[in-house]
Design brief:
The protein is α+β, with helices and mostly antiparallel strands. Helix content is about 35%, strand content about 15%. Strand 6 and strand 7 form a beta hairpin. Bound molecules: iron/sulfur cluster (2 copies) and FE2/S2 (inorganic) cluster. One iron/sulfur cluster binds next to helix 9 and helix 10.
């Protein structure tokens, strides 16, 4: 039988790689491999997943040095080196154990960036509709598809160098709200992302855009935020 040699990160920051042999089969995903290890070889292996269909964003890991969602990554695509694969937790986040990272700082940054929608209607009002053809909506048509997987955050070198940087996902979220005509906190949001740890810290390396499994472009959203901040400053509003 064709066997896959898998090296998996075990432990916390001070951990080490442990080797497992996993039977290889057609259409096998990286998440299938991790699940096999946990169910058949070592039940103490810690990892996260929920939907298995690319919806929840919880299964992201570093696969052969590249951040990826694992439920939609096929072994045939991920195994660059014959039958060997190395699985580690996402970079730029504290490791709790094995393949599980602590996502708190990732989501705390969404809150710091003012990533919560704030509308004016009450629950008694009818739904407010957005014209899908409007210019603002067109600019965020894809950006709103973010699943919060943190792959972009893990791929960003600026986050690695400056842990205070809000990061591509939180800034992408703010971009979608700034372009949401129902939202009434635009200036607060622009203020929140205008500082040293905000959109101007992005060096436009594009790693986030290159690795996003949903093919979104946080880089474009961040560039949009830079323009919005500048325009608000020039108009004396910030
Ligand atoms: S484009 Fe900006 S946010 Fe994206 S990876 Fe590069 S520095 Fe980070
Ligand atoms: S922008 Fe892409 S990579 Fe980043 S959290 Fe959203 S879906 Fe994941
Ligand atoms: S398990 Fe939900 S996106 Fe992979």
């Amino acid at each position: 039988m064709n066997t896959l040699h898998v090296r998996v990160w075990r432990g916390g920051v001070q951990g080490a790689l442990q080797s497992f042999d996993v039977p290889r089969h057609a259409s096998q995903t990286v998440l299938d491999v991790v699940t096999h290890i946990q169910r058949a070889l070592d039940p103490t292996l810690a990892y996260r997943f929920a939907c298995r269909v690319g919806m929840c964003g919880s299964c992201a890991m570093t696969v052969n040095g590249v951040p990826r969602w694992t439920c939609r990554t096929h072994i045939d695509k991920a195994v660059a080196n014959e039958n060997e694969i190395t699985l580690e937790p996402l970079r730029n986040l504290p490791v709790i154990r094995d393949l599980v990272t602590d996502m708190r700082e990732f989501f705390d940054k969404w809150a710091r960036a003012k990533g919560q929608f704030q509308g004016t209607l009450t629950r008694k009002d009818d739904f407010q509709k957005i014209d899908p053809e409007s210019a603002d909506r067109k600019q965020v048509d894809t950006s709103i598809e973010c699943i919060g997987c943190a792959v972009c955050y893990s791929a960003c070198d600026v986050v690695a160098q400056n842990p205070d940087y809000l990061g591509p996902a939180a800034l992408n979220r703010v971009w979608t709200l700034v372009k949401d005509e129902r939202d009434e906190k635009t200036l607060e949001r622009l203020r929140a992302v205008a500082g040293d740890a905000g959109c101007h810290a992005c060096h436009t390396h594009m790693s986030c855009t290159e690795h996003c499994p949903k093919q979104l472009s946080p880089t474009a959203g961040i560039a949009g935020l830079k323009r919005e901040v500048l325009s608000a400053v020039l108009r004396g509003r910030l």
